[in-house]
Each structure stands twice: as structure tokens, then as C-alpha cells.
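user: At home tonight, take the chain set out below, taking as long as you need, and be ready to discuss the fold:
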Amino acid sequence: AAAAAAEVVEGGGRGEDEPAEDGDGGGVRTLRFNSPRKLNAWSLPAIKETREALAEAASDSAVDAVVLTGTGEYYCAGVDLAAVLKPMPPRKLVGMIESLNKQLFEQYIDFPKPIFAAINGPTIGAAATSATLLDGVLANQRATFHTPFASLGLVPEGCSSVIFPKLFGDELANKMLHEGHKMTAQEAHEHGMVNVLVETEPSEGEDTELLNAAITYAEAYVAEKGRKRSRSPEELERLRQVNAEESRALAHAFVSPAFFRAMEAQAARKGRTPQQVVFAALRLTRPIWGMTL
């Protein structure tokens, strides 16, 4: 592990969904998304464990800052929709998604100490948008950033409707959010999404060189600015408002004809006829059950 006095937690002693803690070298705690067989996608248990790990780091007086990274080839494949979405009454589903999405990004907006990402590979959906809520991002050359919301019939989240245009300009933000453009690490660096690009050798476990660079970056940030976040209180309050608005819109998008149509097409491509039929039925009957929302 990169941090001093590291406690490396392998999948086995700690559940795969639980973030591994690599110690607090120099006052910087490292948390790794730790389900490489699932590309570090966030299931409900993973989201819960990450929230708890961040809360513990926030309350620990020995921790000055946090670095997030992934185990294996991916940083994170975003939210595992198959693991999160379960059959339930539509109104309850909408409420659950709105609350879950709001809390998911609030944990980064409201984190009281500097927080950084060491992006060690592909980064998708909520993992990509949440990275822009942090105080700094380092990435290796294998990292990519992909927000395929439109192809899923969904809408922007993670404050990306506001942050992406500021970072990339309207044209590129539109390509990212509505046309499924997959951004390379080099491109992200050129546009300021990635603060430091670190050339490293491929690794099946953790990218130690990238993680060391991120810890050094975090230590330098704390030495200069202390435990202050990079955004002002006013900016953070604005992000809370945007997150709440996007969470409401996203929750309703999950019960929209566009989402069901996208899921139908996906099921058809994978030869999953029963799923295709279910999503088609949900879409066709939407005018009826939609009145319960």
C-alpha cells in the first residue's frame, strides 16, 4: 500500500463491497472501491459502506484529507442499477431513487475536509460526476470518463448539469452528457477535470505510483490550505440546490418511457426476452400506473 502504517484489507477478510482503508500516511486516509470483479460498481451495500467510511474519516481528528481510488483496472463503473433497482410501487421507487441519489452526492459536497481522487482506470456515470465535486483529481493515462445518461434514457446528475459546462464549455458538455462522448485522461487534463496526469505502468491490483502521487498532492494541499475545501460555502450551497433538483429529475426519469425504451433495447441486444417484455409492458401501461406517482 502507498500510505505509511498501511492496513491493507483484501476482499475476503472484509466484504468485497466494503471500501478498503489503506491507512493514514501523513494524515491522508486512502479509501479504495474494492469490488474489482464488479468493476467497483456501487451496490447499495457499497454505497452504505462508503458513506460510513467517509463519516469515520470526517470525525477522526488524525485525518486531514481523504484520497479515493479503485482496486483493479477500473476506478468505478458507477451505480450498479441491477443491484439497486428492485420491484416496488412506482411512487416508492421514485422516492427511494431521489433520496439515494441526493445522499450519494451530498457525502462529497458536504465532506468537511479536503477530498481527492486517484482515478486508476475507466470511470462511469456517478463515479465520473462525483469526481468533479472533489478538491482535486489525479489520473493515470488509462483513465476515461463516460456519462452515458442519454443512452439509458436518463438525465444528468452529480451537479454535472452545472459543473460540466463550466469545465468543458457548452459544446463539449453536451457531447458528454447527451451524446455519450467518452473522455480520455489527456482530454480531461487539458480541460481541467484532471489536475495531474500521472504516467504509470499497468497493474492488476492498485496503481501504487498514482496513489503515491495523490497522497503527496493531498499533503501539499493541506500544508498550504489546511483542512479547507476548495469551493466557497456559497458554491457548496449552490451545489446542494442543484443536486436536489437533479435528484428529483433523475428519479422521475427512471419511470419514464425513454428509460423503459432504452432498457427494452438493451435487453433485446443481450437476448433477454423476458426482460424485454417486462420493460415493454411497463412502457405501454405507463399512462395508467403513472397516475399513482
Q: What stands out?
A: The two ends are 49 Å apart (CA to CA).
